[in-house]
Amino acid sequence: MHKKHLALALLVTFIWGLNFPITKLGLRDIDPFFLTSIRFALAALPLVFFIRRPAVKFRYVAAYGVIFGLGMWGVINYGIHLGVSPGIASLIIQLSVFFTLGWGYVLFQEKIRYAQWIGAVLALIGLTGIIATQQGEHAVLGVMLIVFSALAWSVGNVIIKASGVKEIFAFMVWASLFPPIPLLLMTWWIHGGAAFENLPTHLDLTAVLSILFQVYLATHLAYWGWNTLLKAYPVSTVAPLSLLIPVFGIASSMLILDERVSTLNLMSMAIIIAGLAVGLYRRRTTSGPQSPVLDRAATTHSCSQ
After folding, report:
1. Which domain holds residue 122?
2. Whole-prediction pTM value?
3. Number of domains within the chain
4. Cystine design at 239: which of 151, 171, 192, 298 (Cβ 3.0–4.6 Å)?
């Protein structure tokens, strides 16, 4: 990989890792579903007026938007709101790789390699360790919600594969039109009108900067950078770089939020990262195609942050 592309990869994974504690800052005073709705509204507008709609059936765009915006990011933010540390959240969400492999096996009859089974078992052991260290029902529920969001991300990967979309950036922009309304309805269902009435007082400089970071750096800039790498290099080269996301996420959470990680949690995180590394590793061969679902899982890491 050329130095400029390596620098781009480091920048993208750094932005995505940093996105988790930055999002936490925005969640201090704004409801998680409301904050997510603002993020996707700005991700879609005004770009939809300048970017042509992707040449796929519109139901794929709508389904992906709802699953990605509400099922993934709305749930992630709610899990962090319940007490899951942003660093742990940035790690658990990467389990979507294994959920995606499972969908490939069930829906597309794709084979799962022995190394991927080992990686999945290691990740499950690490996840069990993290759940065991959580104190309080809310914290455990939060971790389970992050796991659910990883499952939702994997469903989104399947939708992208089924759609056959080529214009990934346009797909993401147009899909961002669909999450705001259900997210706003969730906000109203939980809090009534209070969340909307209090927005002007809660929308301070920290919250505004958090939203701008999520939209224009973590979504638009990082998404463009990741897809630039995917166009220039094989997926097998780019995909393992996503392991840097939780590394940056954990480190930045410790620096920005003064997050403290217990020894047992560190061990559990190390086991999950090892499992992800084993699952993503693929020896280079001159024959045999790579798993299309794994390819899409790597591609849609660009949408996850």
Report:
1. 3-304
2. 0.82
3. 1
4. 298
